[in-house]
Amino acid sequence: MLGRMFTSSLDLSITGRPNDQGEYELRDGFSAEVFRAVLSFYTDGCLRCPRGTDVSELRAACDYFMVPFTLGTPCGSLLHEFSNDGARAQFEHFLEEVILPQLVTCAQRGERECQIVILADEDVVDWDEDHPPAMPDTEVLPLIVNSSSMCRFFKYVENRDVAKQVLKERRMKKIRIGIEGYPTHKEKVKRRAGGRSDVIYSYAQRPFLRVSWEKEENRSRHVDFQCVKSKSISDLTSLEAVAVERPVDLPPSLTPPLPDNQAAPQPPGAAEVLEEALERLQADQQQQQQPPAAD
Fold first, then answer.
1. What are phi and psi of 205, to 5 degrees?
2. Any residues with CB less than 8 A from the CB of 87 and at least 6 apart, and which?
3. Domain for residue 255, yes or no?
4. Where does a domain end: 159, 184, 212?
5. Fewer beta carbons within 10 angstroms: which end of the chain, N or C?
6. Mean pLDDT on 178-183
7. Dist. CA 172–CA 211, nearest whole Å
8. pTM over 0.70
9. What is the pLDDT of residues 24-79, one digit of tens each?
10. Confidence band (pLDDT; 50, 70, 90) for 154?
11. CA 129, CA 119: separation in Å to the nearest integer?
Protein backbone atom coordinates (compact mmCIF):
# COMPACT_ATOMS: atom_id res chain seq x y z
CA MET A 1 0.00 0.00 0.00
CA LEU A 2 2.80 2.44 0.87
CA GLY A 3 4.51 1.68 -2.44
CA ARG A 4 1.36 2.55 -4.34
CA MET A 5 0.91 5.73 -2.31
CA PHE A 6 4.41 7.14 -2.86
CA THR A 7 5.05 5.98 -6.44
CA SER A 8 5.47 9.09 -8.59
CA SER A 9 4.64 7.33 -11.86
CA LEU A 10 1.00 6.84 -10.83
CA ASP A 11 -1.53 9.56 -11.28
CA LEU A 12 -3.23 8.89 -7.94
CA SER A 13 -0.47 9.17 -5.39
CA ILE A 14 0.48 11.24 -2.39
CA THR A 15 2.62 14.32 -2.85
CA GLY A 16 6.19 13.67 -1.82
CA ARG A 17 6.40 16.72 0.42
CA PRO A 18 4.37 17.19 3.62
CA ASN A 19 2.41 20.38 4.23
CA ASP A 20 2.94 22.91 7.02
CA GLN A 21 1.29 20.58 9.55
CA GLY A 22 3.51 17.68 8.57
CA GLU A 23 0.68 15.88 6.75
CA TYR A 24 0.70 14.27 3.31
CA GLU A 25 -2.11 15.25 0.97
CA LEU A 26 -3.73 13.00 -1.58
CA ARG A 27 -4.10 14.26 -5.11
CA ASP A 28 -7.49 14.65 -6.73
CA GLY A 29 -9.39 11.39 -7.01
CA PHE A 30 -10.23 10.19 -3.49
CA SER A 31 -11.96 12.06 -0.71
CA ALA A 32 -10.72 12.16 2.86
CA GLU A 33 -13.67 10.04 4.03
CA VAL A 34 -12.84 7.27 1.55
CA PHE A 35 -9.17 7.28 2.50
CA ARG A 36 -10.12 7.13 6.20
CA ALA A 37 -12.32 4.11 5.46
CA VAL A 38 -9.41 2.38 3.72
CA LEU A 39 -7.13 3.02 6.68
CA SER A 40 -9.75 1.67 9.09
CA PHE A 41 -9.64 -1.62 7.17
CA TYR A 42 -6.01 -2.10 8.23
CA THR A 43 -6.94 -1.23 11.82
CA ASP A 44 -9.87 -3.55 12.51
CA GLY A 45 -10.24 -5.49 9.27
CA CYS A 46 -13.68 -3.99 8.55
CA LEU A 47 -14.45 -1.80 5.58
CA ARG A 48 -17.14 0.82 6.30
CA CYS A 49 -18.55 2.96 3.56
CA PRO A 50 -18.93 6.59 4.67
CA ARG A 51 -22.35 8.14 4.60
CA GLY A 52 -23.12 9.85 1.31
CA THR A 53 -20.24 8.12 -0.53
CA ASP A 54 -20.79 6.28 -3.79
CA VAL A 55 -19.89 2.59 -3.74
CA SER A 56 -18.02 2.92 -7.03
CA GLU A 57 -15.66 5.48 -5.48
CA LEU A 58 -14.98 3.19 -2.53
CA ARG A 59 -14.32 0.25 -4.83
CA ALA A 60 -11.94 2.28 -6.96
CA ALA A 61 -10.03 3.26 -3.84
CA CYS A 62 -9.91 -0.37 -2.71
CA ASP A 63 -8.56 -1.43 -6.09
CA TYR A 64 -5.88 1.25 -6.01
CA PHE A 65 -4.74 0.56 -2.43
CA MET A 66 -5.00 -3.23 -2.96
CA VAL A 67 -7.76 -3.71 -0.42
CA PRO A 68 -9.83 -6.83 -1.24
CA PHE A 69 -13.27 -5.85 -2.49
CA THR A 70 -14.56 -9.02 -4.14
CA LEU A 71 -17.65 -11.17 -3.90
CA GLY A 72 -15.91 -13.28 -1.30
CA THR A 73 -15.48 -10.32 1.03
CA PRO A 74 -18.02 -10.24 3.91
CA CYS A 75 -20.21 -7.35 2.79
CA GLY A 76 -23.29 -7.92 4.98
CA SER A 77 -22.29 -5.19 7.45
CA LEU A 78 -21.57 -2.83 4.59
CA LEU A 79 -24.98 -3.39 3.03
CA HIS A 80 -26.56 -3.02 6.48
CA GLU A 81 -25.02 0.42 6.84
CA PHE A 82 -26.20 1.32 3.34
CA SER A 83 -29.73 0.27 4.28
CA ASN A 84 -29.63 2.32 7.48
CA ASP A 85 -28.52 5.42 5.59
CA GLY A 86 -31.18 4.88 2.97
CA ALA A 87 -33.86 4.25 5.59
CA ARG A 88 -32.92 7.42 7.44
CA ALA A 89 -33.18 9.53 4.29
CA GLN A 90 -36.47 7.87 3.32
CA PHE A 91 -38.05 8.37 6.75
CA GLU A 92 -36.97 12.00 6.87
CA HIS A 93 -38.84 12.43 3.60
CA PHE A 94 -41.93 10.73 5.05
CA LEU A 95 -41.65 12.85 8.18
CA GLU A 96 -41.58 16.14 6.33
CA GLU A 97 -44.16 15.33 3.67
CA VAL A 98 -46.70 13.08 5.43
CA ILE A 99 -46.24 12.73 9.18
CA LEU A 100 -45.50 16.31 10.22
CA PRO A 101 -48.74 17.75 8.70
CA GLN A 102 -50.73 15.17 10.69
CA LEU A 103 -48.94 16.15 13.90
CA VAL A 104 -49.71 19.82 13.25
CA THR A 105 -53.38 18.95 12.74
CA CYS A 106 -53.52 17.20 16.14
CA ALA A 107 -51.71 20.07 17.85
CA GLN A 108 -54.15 22.62 16.44
CA ARG A 109 -57.01 20.64 18.01
CA GLY A 110 -55.36 20.90 21.41
CA GLU A 111 -54.11 17.32 21.48
CA ARG A 112 -50.85 16.39 23.19
CA GLU A 113 -50.15 13.19 21.30
CA CYS A 114 -51.00 11.67 17.96
CA GLN A 115 -51.49 8.19 16.55
CA ILE A 116 -51.24 7.55 12.83
CA VAL A 117 -52.34 4.34 11.10
CA ILE A 118 -50.69 3.75 7.72
CA LEU A 119 -52.88 1.89 5.25
CA ALA A 120 -52.07 0.75 1.73
CA ASP A 121 -53.33 2.68 -1.25
CA GLU A 122 -55.86 -0.04 -2.09
CA ASP A 123 -57.27 -0.32 1.45
CA VAL A 124 -60.84 0.90 1.92
CA VAL A 125 -62.28 1.67 5.37
CA ASP A 126 -66.03 0.90 5.49
CA TRP A 127 -67.48 0.82 9.01
CA ASP A 128 -71.07 0.29 10.03
CA GLU A 129 -72.35 3.48 11.65
CA ASP A 130 -74.68 1.56 13.98
CA HIS A 131 -72.11 -1.10 14.91
CA PRO A 132 -68.59 0.38 14.76
CA PRO A 133 -65.66 -1.88 15.66
CA ALA A 134 -64.38 -1.92 19.22
CA MET A 135 -61.11 0.00 19.36
CA PRO A 136 -58.59 -0.82 22.12
CA ASP A 137 -57.77 2.84 22.82
CA THR A 138 -60.60 5.33 22.57
CA GLU A 139 -58.72 8.23 24.16
CA VAL A 140 -56.60 8.90 21.06
CA LEU A 141 -58.47 8.66 17.77
CA PRO A 142 -56.05 7.50 15.06
CA LEU A 143 -55.49 9.43 11.87
CA ILE A 144 -55.49 7.47 8.62
CA VAL A 145 -52.76 7.83 6.01
CA ASN A 146 -52.87 5.85 2.76
CA SER A 147 -49.35 5.13 1.55
CA SER A 148 -48.18 1.78 0.23
CA SER A 149 -44.56 2.94 0.26
CA MET A 150 -44.75 3.70 3.99
CA CYS A 151 -46.35 0.29 4.60
CA ARG A 152 -43.41 -1.40 2.90
CA PHE A 153 -40.95 0.81 4.77
CA PHE A 154 -42.28 0.01 8.26
CA LYS A 155 -42.45 -3.70 7.47
CA TYR A 156 -38.82 -4.08 8.60
CA VAL A 157 -37.83 -3.88 12.24
CA GLU A 158 -34.55 -2.17 11.32
CA ASN A 159 -36.41 0.63 9.56
CA ARG A 160 -38.65 1.11 12.59
CA ASP A 161 -35.55 1.42 14.78
CA VAL A 162 -34.11 4.04 12.45
CA ALA A 163 -37.42 5.94 12.52
CA LYS A 164 -37.43 5.91 16.34
CA GLN A 165 -33.92 7.33 16.39
CA VAL A 166 -34.88 10.14 14.03
CA LEU A 167 -37.96 10.99 16.12
CA LYS A 168 -35.85 11.07 19.29
CA GLU A 169 -33.53 13.52 17.61
CA ARG A 170 -36.58 15.67 16.84
CA ARG A 171 -37.42 15.75 20.61
CA MET A 172 -40.45 13.48 20.37
CA LYS A 173 -41.64 11.58 23.46
CA LYS A 174 -43.40 8.24 24.13
CA ILE A 175 -42.58 6.86 20.68
CA ARG A 176 -44.35 3.68 19.65
CA ILE A 177 -43.99 2.14 16.19
CA GLY A 178 -45.34 -1.29 15.37
CA ILE A 179 -47.77 -3.36 13.33
CA GLU A 180 -51.31 -4.16 14.50
CA GLY A 181 -54.57 -5.35 13.03
CA TYR A 182 -56.81 -2.50 11.89
CA PRO A 183 -60.48 -3.06 10.98
CA THR A 184 -61.11 -2.06 7.39
CA HIS A 185 -64.56 -3.29 6.32
CA LYS A 186 -67.45 -5.53 7.37
CA GLU A 187 -67.00 -9.19 6.70
CA LYS A 188 -70.37 -10.56 7.88
CA VAL A 189 -73.24 -9.85 10.26
CA LYS A 190 -74.48 -12.39 12.81
CA ARG A 191 -78.07 -12.23 14.04
CA ARG A 192 -78.61 -13.27 17.62
CA ALA A 193 -81.67 -13.91 19.75
CA GLY A 194 -83.56 -10.85 20.85
CA GLY A 195 -82.92 -8.94 17.65
CA ARG A 196 -79.30 -8.21 18.53
CA SER A 197 -76.73 -8.36 15.74
CA ASP A 198 -72.94 -8.63 15.84
CA VAL A 199 -70.79 -7.24 13.04
CA ILE A 200 -67.55 -9.09 12.27
CA TYR A 201 -64.88 -6.92 10.66
CA SER A 202 -61.97 -7.85 8.46
CA TYR A 203 -58.63 -6.81 9.97
CA ALA A 204 -55.51 -5.92 8.00
CA GLN A 205 -52.04 -5.92 9.53
CA ARG A 206 -50.87 -2.37 9.06
CA PRO A 207 -48.14 -0.25 10.70
CA PHE A 208 -48.94 2.49 13.18
CA LEU A 209 -46.98 5.34 14.73
CA ARG A 210 -47.77 7.04 18.02
CA VAL A 211 -45.78 9.97 19.43
CA SER A 212 -46.15 12.80 21.92
CA TRP A 213 -44.43 16.15 22.12
CA GLU A 214 -45.01 16.67 25.84
CA LYS A 215 -42.55 15.66 28.57
CA GLU A 216 -45.12 14.66 31.19
CA GLU A 217 -47.98 12.21 31.08
CA ASN A 218 -51.36 13.42 29.83
CA ARG A 219 -52.86 13.76 33.27
CA SER A 220 -54.42 16.69 35.07
CA ARG A 221 -52.31 18.59 37.58
CA HIS A 222 -55.41 19.61 39.60
CA VAL A 223 -55.71 17.93 42.99
CA ASP A 224 -59.22 17.26 44.29
CA PHE A 225 -59.47 17.41 48.07
CA GLN A 226 -62.37 15.47 49.56
CA CYS A 227 -64.54 17.27 52.10
CA VAL A 228 -64.43 15.16 55.28
CA LYS A 229 -67.00 15.97 57.95
CA SER A 230 -65.25 17.00 61.13
CA LYS A 231 -66.07 14.99 64.24
CA SER A 232 -64.88 17.69 66.66
CA ILE A 233 -67.35 19.84 68.65
CA SER A 234 -67.21 23.47 67.63
CA ASP A 235 -69.48 24.90 70.38
CA LEU A 236 -71.24 23.84 73.58
CA THR A 237 -74.71 24.13 72.07
CA SER A 238 -74.16 20.94 70.15
CA LEU A 239 -73.02 19.04 73.23
CA GLU A 240 -76.53 17.79 73.99
CA ALA A 241 -77.00 16.46 70.45
CA VAL A 242 -73.66 14.70 70.59
CA ALA A 243 -74.51 13.17 73.96
CA VAL A 244 -77.80 11.83 72.58
CA GLU A 245 -76.18 10.47 69.40
CA ARG A 246 -73.33 8.84 71.28
CA PRO A 247 -74.58 7.75 74.72
CA VAL A 248 -72.14 6.22 77.14
CA ASP A 249 -72.61 2.45 77.42
CA LEU A 250 -71.75 0.96 80.81
CA PRO A 251 -70.30 -2.55 81.01
CA PRO A 252 -72.73 -5.31 82.00
CA SER A 253 -71.05 -5.74 85.42
CA LEU A 254 -71.95 -2.15 86.41
CA THR A 255 -75.49 -2.23 85.09
CA PRO A 256 -78.06 -3.32 87.77
CA PRO A 257 -80.70 -5.82 86.68
CA LEU A 258 -84.17 -4.41 86.03
CA PRO A 259 -87.55 -6.01 86.59
CA ASP A 260 -89.26 -7.52 83.60
CA ASN A 261 -92.14 -5.01 83.69
CA GLN A 262 -89.87 -1.99 84.01
CA ALA A 263 -88.22 -0.43 81.01
CA ALA A 264 -84.63 0.67 81.08
CA PRO A 265 -84.31 4.36 81.97
CA GLN A 266 -83.04 6.67 79.31
CA PRO A 267 -79.66 8.23 79.97
CA PRO A 268 -79.91 11.88 80.99
CA GLY A 269 -79.16 14.46 78.43
CA ALA A 270 -76.38 17.00 78.62
CA ALA A 271 -78.81 19.80 79.53
CA GLU A 272 -80.20 17.84 82.47
CA VAL A 273 -76.71 17.10 83.74
CA LEU A 274 -75.73 20.75 83.53
CA GLU A 275 -78.96 21.85 85.21
CA GLU A 276 -78.45 19.43 88.11
CA ALA A 277 -74.87 20.57 88.58
CA LEU A 278 -75.99 24.21 88.56
CA GLU A 279 -78.62 23.50 91.25
CA ARG A 280 -76.04 21.83 93.46
CA LEU A 281 -73.68 24.77 93.02
CA GLN A 282 -76.38 27.27 93.97
CA ALA A 283 -77.32 25.23 97.07
CA ASP A 284 -73.72 25.15 98.22
CA GLN A 285 -73.43 28.92 97.79
CA GLN A 286 -76.59 29.52 99.84
CA GLN A 287 -75.30 27.35 102.68
CA GLN A 288 -72.04 29.25 102.73
CA GLN A 289 -73.87 32.64 102.86
CA GLN A 290 -76.07 31.67 105.88
CA PRO A 291 -74.70 32.90 109.30
CA PRO A 292 -73.64 30.22 111.76
CA ALA A 293 -76.19 29.37 114.47
CA ALA A 294 -75.54 30.76 118.03
CA ASP A 295 -74.91 28.37 120.89
1. -75, 110
2. 153, 156, 158, 159, 162, 163
3. no
4. 212
5. C
6. 90
7. 6
8. no
9. 665 556 777 888 888 888 787 777 777 777 777 877 888 877 777 654 455 676 67
10. very high
11. 21
